């Protein structure tokens, strides 16, 4: 380059070539920055010989030389993000011209913002970076002409903010982009380097600074008058000319001379800051705004001691002498089109800036160095920075891939947590052993993890330790964890939005389909009604006349308009012969609109006989006129002439209505009416559904709160409801646990069912909380926690544990960014409501499954396909598959029952084609069913987390699984067994208890009652009592179609009053205001038959009414109750009704219409009757046993017990199994109804507000399932 400068200095200057030569020299000077002293010397010589300079190089030669000297960097192949981040080198034949406004460069063609047809919008001239984007394809505000994006960046190429016209980066990087961080083009001391600039307010001042060594002065000039045009903008942009003459002259100026309006700013040792320059030029000249101020950025080395003074005027090029214009073509670039991060350009693509030959030498040296050290790999740049592109070189010969034809890198960032990628390596030009690829390092990275492999099974993973490279950037491990949390939250929000959109579309499609089906149904109904009407009208037309001799006739009226007819009537010898008034009560078309015409008759004196007439205006669509004669208007008539009960019918004269047109119009009218009725009905149902959903949601929230408070005598939290990302206090009362009296209590906690990525928290010694027995521990709940899990122990390391009898303590956490890992649960049962229901087992299978499914888990049911199956309750039933097992083919059908997926197994041996559920060699049939169900699960690879079997009938599942399937693909499955009634199949139940993982029965009290049973006692440690619930959709007085008036707890009195009247009317009971006691039961010994009979008599003696609904499987008991019914109906007629059958729709009316429901069972595992009664606002009267004791709290005796569970008393109960106990409870109940009616009504409201649905039991079962999976 220096030889070229010397040659140019000897020649006569050609002004028209100044532009190209100066441009070339400036760029070459930048490349020669390491030879700064020579550069400065030749600049001085160039100034001395200014008058003799002539440019002898032709423009075209110069451009060719420039292209040879600065070839366009070659493109490289890398994964998509790296490509997106790589700067694009532009063709050097760029034509830079005038700028019209701040931050904008104008070019001739606005449509093509790129000079060299680069893809994408908002492209730059030079092609550097803005943050992580190439200038060639990234938009950004207020960008530099030459591609510098940050504030106070050098036009030529330095990245840091607030940099000087002559400055060095904080890392002291070289302009030419060498990897070493302390290479510089100009070596200057760092201390107290004065620098030039204008303040943000545009003010200037002169502050002389003397360097401790050789100082460098950089003078910032305000534009002189006549040399610039100032435009006042938001940033006070100043436009300035660049004058080559001034540049050369000022090189020889006194270095200490202060130039007018110079601003100095002191820079400390660590950073070079440049105040905001705002420079401008008249139209046609270059503009540099505050984001682009630095004109030339030259690095400063440590050892050089060159003093130099450059003013901004020196760095200006006169537009008269040098214009960066090669022709008259002009282009316009929007200010947002050029945004560069030069540091990223230098760091990310060093080949684009460094001389290719120098780069090659440097890389060769690195390769030789790493090869000699037997390093398997190295990267360039050696310091890897975030948001950049690096070259990775891999020595294949030193690894397991030495003989493999393909080398692929597989990696990710930040401990394999971020952006997994693969990229194929290619042979590099550094030698046969080195393979390379380019990788983009994202800005979120602080560490690069990777391995190499051959694309198949051969790996090089650094001795099982993987390869790892640290990355410099703003991210670290803690910040990245926070970033991941936020990223996960955004992902969840996106997924939630997508799922909501999918559901919305599905719902819209469903509604559209239903609307079309409903419309077709309405049209079909309209056609059907038209057909019926047509037949009736045709029959009527056959009877219609225009007159009947000497009785009546019709003629067109001559006194009125043409639409009026006159009807004549001769009352002589007719029923109205002696009436003083004659009236017509009429209609049309076989009374299609009922009574619609009423006219009075007047005496006709001009005809023989007793004739009367009336003028009548028939409706336009009338084909036939229908009427009777009466002695008064409608409502006041007593005597009628109705043609011997056939009415009178006349064909209207001069009728312009065609029969065909009439029926078309009539069908449209009917269709419109039916459509309106349907819409009104749908709107009513929608409102009811919304209110019902709100009621259920409120009840569910109350239940959750009660669930959190249910252990308050042992443990609770403050706040009660835990939110992710917050701090919570856990308060524990050891005096009510196995840790009572222990000197220390340690708290052990984790999250997400002990599966949180960070593991269990360190044990925490609990401290006293206040003066009571409570101990406290404080926990920081992570943002991705959805469940908090904990136990307590007496020592830090071990000792006695309070783990809630093996269940652990679990509290749900709301607002988590993580979602629970939901389970797959399969129920294997022989009953399911409503398709195969015999007793309460079928209700539990359906209701429990729905409740758990509502919590997000996948729940399915496997059921035998009985020939007596109620298939009308199965939606979309179809053949799923067939498989062979047990010597027969088994067809599998699938359908939806109550929104649950149900598989029906149908063995072709006819085993379930016996016409009933029970009673036909049940042991053999159900054993075969259980085994075939497990085989079906295995063959279909369902791999459920839980298999739930019920009662003796599906108990074989427990041992068949352990014996045949526990070592199969179903090895992780756990078996849960529920006992509904221990009275049946105790042998099978005992065997299932041995093999199951967890077992339950249907209430806590019943679990204690049967704990000593031989089938239970050996396995008490895995036996729990969980209450059953009721289905709130089936038993809902607000949406119940079997009661006359829907009601909630808000209008329970009015609703039950209407239901009572309907019940009394249906059974012929006296319509009196007395209490009604309802009894809905199976008539078996278990249900307390003798107590039921006594309760009936006692209620009748107390002036109440009784309604009983039920039947007995034992024909002797059934006959006994038939005789009792006959006797009672005779003696207490109108006060008692016994309906000895099962009728579920009728049971709804009895629940709603009764004031009390009595359940005097001798034993009751759970009982649903009392729960349904409370749902309908009826007060339960029960015997204290099993689930009855767990759900009914006596208003006089159980206040404390109820409130300890977060409830209020809700009924009447009694001990014993004799009549005295029944009398004790029944007398108090009926007495309260008569004597304290307001209190009784409040009690009805209270019991309706209590939640006895599956909301709480479902939570308990979920905890049980999780506890089973722990084993």
TrEMBL record:
Record's protein name: starch synthase
Known EC number: 2.4.1.21
Similarity comment text for this entry: Belongs to the glycosyltransferase 1 family. Bacterial/plant glycogen synthase subfamily.
GO cellular component: amyloplast; chloroplast
Subcellular location: Plastid, Amyloplast; Plastid, Chloroplast
UniProt-listed SMART domains: CBM_25
GO molecular function annotations of the record: alpha-1,4-glucan glucosyltransferase (ADP-glucose donor) activity; alpha-1,4-glucan glucosyltransferase (UDP-glucose donor) activity; starch binding
Regions crossing the membrane: none
GO biological process: amylopectin biosynthetic process; starch biosynthetic process
Functional pathway: Glycan biosynthesis; starch biosynthesis
Class of this enzyme: transferase
Catalyses which reaction(s): [(1->4)-alpha-D-glucosyl](n) + ADP-alpha-D-glucose = [(1->4)-alpha-D-glucosyl](n+1) + ADP + H(+)
Region entry Disordered, spans: 498-518
Gene3D superfamilies the UniProt entry points to: Glycogen Phosphorylase B (3.40.50.2000), Immunoglobulins (2.60.40.10)
Major place of residence: plastid
Coiled coil: 664-698
Highest taxon listed in the record's lineage: Eukaryota
Provenance organism: Aegilops tauschii subsp. strangulata
Segments forming domain Carbohydrate binding module family: 387-472, 562-653, 725-814
Keywords on record: Amyloplast, Chloroplast, Coiled coil, Glycosyltransferase, Plastid, Starch biosynthesis, Transferase, Transit peptide
The keyword Coiled coil belongs to this UniProt entry's keyword annotation: yes
């Amino acid at each position: 380059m220096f030889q070229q400068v010397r040659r140019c200095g000897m020649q006569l200057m050609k002004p028209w070539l100044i532009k190209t030569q100066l441009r070339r020299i400036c760029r070459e000077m930048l490349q020669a920055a390491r030879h700064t002293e020579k550069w400065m010397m030749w600049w001085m010589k160039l100034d001395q010989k200014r008058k003799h300079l002539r440019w002898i190089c032709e423009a075209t030669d110069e451009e060719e030389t420039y292209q040879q000297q600065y070839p366009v960097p070659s493109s490289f192949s890398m994964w998509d993000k790296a490509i997106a981040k790589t700067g694009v080198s532009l063709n050097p034949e760029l034509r830079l011209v005038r700028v019209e406004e701040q931050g904008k460069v104008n070019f001739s063609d606005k449509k093509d913002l790129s000079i060299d047809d680069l893809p994408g919008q908002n492209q730059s001239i030079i092609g550097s970076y803005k943050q992580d984007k190439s200038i060639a394809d990234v938009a950004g505000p207020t960008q530099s002409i030459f591609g510098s994006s940050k504030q106070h960046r050098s036009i030529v190429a330095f990245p840091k903010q607030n940099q000087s016209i002559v400055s060095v980066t904080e890392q002291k990087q070289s302009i030419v982009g060498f990897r070493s961080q302390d290479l510089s083009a100009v070596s200057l001391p760092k201390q107290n380097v004065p620098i030039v600039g204008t303040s943000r307010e545009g003010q200037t001042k002169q502050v002389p600074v003397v360097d401790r060594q050789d100082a460098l002065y950089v003078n910032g000039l305000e534009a002189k008058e006549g040399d610039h045009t100032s435009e006042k903008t938001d940033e006070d942009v100043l436009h300035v000319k660049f004058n080559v003459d001034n540049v050369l002259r000022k090189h020889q100026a006194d270095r200490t001379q202060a130039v007018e309006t110079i601003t100095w700013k002191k820079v400390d040792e660590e950073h070079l800051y440049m105040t905001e320059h705002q420079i401008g030029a008249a139209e046609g000249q270059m503009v540099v705004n505050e984001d682009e101020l630095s004109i030339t950025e030259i690095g400063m080395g440590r050892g050089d001691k060159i003093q130099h003074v450059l003013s901004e005027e020196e760095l200006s090029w006169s537009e008269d002498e040098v214009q960066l214009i090669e022709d008259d073509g002009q282009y316009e670039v929007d200010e947002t089109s050029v945004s560069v991060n030069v540091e990223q350009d230098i760091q990310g693509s060093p080949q684009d800036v460094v001389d290719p030959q120098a780069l090659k030498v440097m890389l060769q040296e690195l390769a030789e160095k790493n090869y000699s050290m037997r390093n398997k790999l190295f990267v360039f740049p050696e310091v890897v920075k975030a948001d950049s592109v690096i070259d990775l070189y891999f020595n294949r010969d030193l690894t397991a891939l030495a003989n493999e034809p393909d080398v692929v890198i597989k990696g990710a960032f930040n401990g394999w947590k971020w952006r997994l990628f693969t990229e194929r390596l290619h042979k590099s030009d550094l030698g046969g052993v080195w393979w390379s690829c380019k990788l983009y390092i994202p800005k979120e990275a602080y560490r690069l993890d990777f391995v190499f492999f051959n694309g198949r099974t051969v790996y090089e993973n650094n001795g099982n330790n993987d390869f790892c490279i640290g990355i410099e950037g703003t991210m670290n491990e803690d910040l990245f964890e926070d970033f991941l949390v936020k990223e996960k939250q955004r992902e969840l929000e996106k997924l939630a939005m997508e799922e909501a959109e999918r559901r919305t579309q599905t719902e819209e499609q469903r509604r559209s389909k239903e609307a079309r089906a409903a419309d077709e149904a309405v049209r079909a109904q309209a056609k059907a009604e038209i057909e019926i009407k047509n037949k009736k009208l045709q029959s009527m037309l056959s009877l219609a006349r225009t007159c009947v001799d000497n009785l009546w006739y019709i003629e067109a009226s001559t006194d009125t308009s043409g639409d009026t007819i006159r009807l004549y009537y001769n009352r002589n010898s007719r029923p109205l012969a002696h009436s003083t008034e004659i009236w017509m009560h009429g209609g049309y078309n076989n009374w299609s609109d009922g009574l619609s015409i009423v006219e009075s008759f007047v005496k006709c004196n001009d005809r023989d006989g007793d004739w009367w007439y009336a003028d009548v205006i028939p409706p336009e669509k009338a084909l036939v006129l229908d009427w009777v004669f009466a002695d008064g208007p409608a409502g006041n008539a007593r005597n009628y002439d109705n043609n011997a009960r056939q009415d009178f019918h006349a064909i209207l004269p001069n009728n312009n209505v065609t029969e065909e047109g009439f029926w078309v119009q009539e069908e449209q009218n009917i269709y419109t009416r039916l459509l309106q009725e349907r819409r009104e009905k749908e709107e009513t149902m929608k409102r009811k559904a919304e209110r019902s959903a709100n009621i259920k949601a409120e009840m569910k929230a109350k239940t959750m709160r009660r669930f959190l408070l249910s252990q308050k005598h042992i443990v609770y939290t403050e706040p009660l409801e835990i939110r992710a990302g917050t701090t919570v206090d856990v308060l524990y009362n050891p005096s009510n646990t196995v840790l009572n009296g222990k000197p220390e209590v340690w708290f052990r906690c984790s999250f997400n069912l002990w599966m949180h990525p960070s593991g269990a928290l360190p044990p925490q010694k609990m401290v006293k909380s206040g003066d009571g027995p409570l101990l406290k521990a404080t926990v920081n709940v992570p943002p991705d926690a959805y469940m908090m899990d904990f136990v307590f122990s007496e020592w830090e390391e071990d000792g006695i544990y309070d783990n809630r009898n093996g269940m652990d303590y679990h509290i749900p956490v709301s607002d988590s960014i993580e979602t629970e890992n939901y389970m797959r649960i399969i129920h294997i049962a022989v009953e399911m409501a409503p398709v195969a229901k015999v007793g309460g087992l079928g209700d539990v299978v359906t209701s429990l499954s729905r409740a758990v499914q509502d919590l997000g888990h996948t729940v399915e049911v496997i059921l035998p396909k009985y020939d007596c199956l109620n298939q009308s309750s199965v939606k979309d039933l179809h053949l799923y598959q067939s498989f062979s097992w047990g010597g027969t083919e088994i067809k599998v059908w699938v359908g939806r029952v109550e929104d649950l997926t149900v598989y029906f197994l149908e063995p072709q041996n006819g085993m379930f084609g016996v016409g009933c559920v029970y009673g036909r060699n049940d042991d053999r049939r159900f054993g075969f069913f259980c085994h075939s169900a497990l085989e079906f699960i295995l063959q279909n690879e369902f791999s459920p987390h839980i298999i739930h079997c019920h009662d003796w009938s599906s108990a074989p599942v427990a041992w068949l699984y352990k014996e045949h399937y526990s070592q199969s693909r179903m090895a992780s499955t756990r078996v849960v067994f529920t006992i509904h009634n221990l009275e049946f199949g105790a042998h099978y139940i005992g065997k299932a208890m041995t093999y199951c993982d967890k077992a339950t029965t249907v209430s806590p009290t019943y679990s204690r009652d049967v704990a000593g049973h031989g089938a239970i006692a050996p396995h008490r440690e895995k036996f729990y009592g969980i209450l059953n619930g009721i289905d709130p959709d089936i038993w809902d007085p607000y949406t119940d179609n079997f009661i006359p008036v829907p009601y909630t707890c808000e209008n329970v009195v009015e609703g039950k009053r209407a239901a009572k009247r309907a019940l009394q009317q249906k059974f012929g009971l006296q319509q009196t205001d007395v209490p009604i006691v309802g009894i809905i039961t199976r008539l078996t010994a278990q249900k307390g038959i003798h107590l039921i009979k006594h309760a009936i008599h006692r209620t009748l003696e107390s002036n109440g009414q009784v309604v009983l609904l039920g039947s007995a499987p034992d024909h002797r008991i059934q006959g006994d109750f038939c005789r009792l019914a006959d006797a009672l109906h005779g003696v207490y007629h109108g006060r008692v009704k016994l309906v000895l059958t099962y009728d579920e729709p009728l049971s709804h009316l009895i629940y709603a219409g009764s004031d009390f429901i009595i359940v005097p069972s001798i034993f009751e595992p759970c009982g649903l009757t009392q729960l349904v009664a409370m749902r309908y606002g009826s007060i339960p009267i029960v015997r204290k046993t099993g689930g009855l004791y767990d759900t009914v709290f006596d208003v006089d005796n159980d206040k404390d017990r109820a409130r300890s569970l977060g409830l209020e008393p809700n009924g009447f109960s009694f001990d014993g199994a004799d009549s005295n106990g029944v009398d004790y409870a029944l007398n108090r109940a009926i007495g309260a109804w008569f004597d304290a009616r307001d209190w009784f009504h409040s009690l009805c409201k209270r019991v309706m507000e209590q939640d006895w649905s599956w909301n709480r039991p479902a939570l308990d079962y979920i905890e049980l399932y999780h506890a089973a999976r722990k084993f």
